[in-house]
Design a protein that fits this description.
By secondary structure, the protein is of the alpha/beta class. The chain folds into two domains: 2-158 and 294-347, Medium-chain alcohol dehydrogenases, catalytic domain (Quinone Oxidoreductase, Chain A, domain 1, Alpha-Beta Complex); 160-290, Rossmann fold, CATH 3.40.50.720. 24% of the residues lie in helices and 26% in strands. The protein has eleven helices and 17 strands. It starts with a strand and ends in a 6-residue tail after the last strand. Bound molecules: NADP nicotinamide-adenine-dinucleotide phosphate and zinc ion (2 copies). One zinc ion (ZN) is lined by residues 40, 42, 62, 88, 158. Residues 40, 42, 62, 88, 158 line the site of one zinc ion. Pfam families: ADH_N (PF08240), ADH_zinc_N (PF00107). GO terms for molecular function: oxidoreductase activity, acting on the CH-OH group of donors, NAD or NADP as acceptor; zinc ion binding.
């Protein structure tokens, strides 16, 4: 079938209308009529080839929420009319130790990215959520609980899970002090989720205008990273810091906030290698770690957690025709706190 989309034809080129051909629904597949797609900073990194060479034309989008409109003959998890979501990958090898452990996000074989990837045949390019439809194996699609509106649910499929997974792994909860670096798409979900888990949350931002929002979203404390007095006062106070920053920064400055044996988990993926001074780790036996999105079961757990706590993402809904402008604003840290494309506008 032909699918209407927006694509970037070449690195750093503006997004423009594009039509691609999508496979027919197979026995284990479902067809999702995409209603909303979130804009992740990773879309911009990949379209700019920040992380290396990419596949063009590129239809970005790995925060997909929609309605199931067709199911294959062997499908058991979905029926027509269900709300379904798609995150950052649409298939993995299924046989490696990590896939078998439900940690598909760390697949040791071939992971089929939702876009800027190739299918298991290692040839067919994948196209993402800035489009009207997606066909996906039911095992890699998520059920969006009915009480979560699709627009606020879409960003959970990347921003939500990327924060939920490390917060769970490092056991954020009552009695733990969690720092979130950066109040963007990922960071604002980190504040909401860590708060809902019962942790004390400190937001560390380089934007002076975000304190009020941070507190409204659930932060107990706010530190402006350029406020040297406040940064000094908060030294050695946090158990876990999740670094969502997309740009090059002085990590030592932030590592000092972590207390004895605490951890900084990196999820932000800036273009250049991170640089740290060894003393920032050795001084308080601190750990520097990283985390990548989440597996299928954990994605479902996260969606259910958000639905139970009654929150999705804070969003600005846009028409696809505003996407280039929205990307510019993301680059300026000027988004409150996720842009979501209403894909109805693709039919305009
Ligand atoms: P975003 O909405 O642009 O948020 C990034 C935030 O970083 C900004 O809002 C800003 O927060 C802060 N920031 C930006 N430039 C900064 C600078 N020069 N100094 C200090 N802080 C700065 O982006 P996002 O969609 O949340 O994604 C964040 C990063 O995570 C990206 O690199 C993305 O590719 C990556 N990512 C990783 C995973 C994973 O699985 N590991 C998944 C998704 C995305 P303040 O204004 O509050 O300072
Ligand atoms: Zn993403
Ligand atoms: Zn695998």
């Amino acid at each position: 079938m032909d699918v209407t989309a927006y694509a970037t034809p070449a690195p750093n080129a503006p997004l423009a209308p594009f039509v691609f051909s999508q496979r027919e629904v197979g026995a284990h597949d479902i067809l999702i009529d995409i209603k909303f797609a979130g804009i992740c900073h990773s879309d911009i990194h990949q379209a700019s080839e920040d992380w290396g060479s990419a596949i063009f034309p590129m239809v970005p989008g790995h925060e997909i929420a929609g309605v199931v409109t067709q199911v294959g003959s062997a499908v058991t998890k979905f029926k027509v009319g269900d709300h379904a979501g798609v995150g950052c990958f649409v298939d993995t090898c299924r046989v490696c130790a990590n896939c078998l452990a439900g940690l598909e996000q760390y697949c040791l074989g071939h992971m089929v990215l939702t876009y800027n990837g190739v299918e298991a045949d290692m040839q067919t390019p994948t196209y993402g959520g800035y489009s009207t439809h997606i066909v996906i194996d039911e095992g890699y699609a998520l059920t969006i609980p009915p009480n979560l509106p699709l627009d606020v649910a879409a960003p959970l499929l990347c921003a939500g899970i990327t924060l939920y997974s490390p917060l769970r792994y490092w056991q954020a909860g009552p009695g733990t002090r969690v720092g979130i670096m950066g109040l963007g798409g990922l960071g604002h979900m980190g504040v909401k989720i860590a708060h809902a888990m019962g942790a004390e949350v400190t937001l560390i931002s380089h934007s002076p205008g975000k304190e009020e929002d941070a507190r409204r979203l659930g932060a107990d404390n706010f530190i402006l990273s350029s406020d040297t007095k406040a940064m000094k006062a908060a030294r050695n106070s946090l158990d876990l810091v999740i670094n969502t920053v997309s740009a090059d920064i002085e990590l030592d400055h932030y590592l000092a906030l972590i207390k004895l044996q605490g951890t900084m988990c990196v999820v932000g993926l800036p273009e250049k290698p991170l640089s740290i001074g060894a003393f920032a780790l050795t001084g308080q036996r601190r750990s520097l770690a990283g985390s990548n999105i989440g597996g299928i079961a954990e994605n479902q757990e996260m969606l259910n957690f958000c639905a139970e706590h009654g929150f999705g993402s804070d969003i600005e809904v846009i028409a696809i025709q505003q996407v280039n402008e929205a990307w510019e604003r993301v680059l300026k840290s000027d988004v409150r706190y996720r842009f979501v494309i209403d894909t109805e506008s693709l039919n305009a």
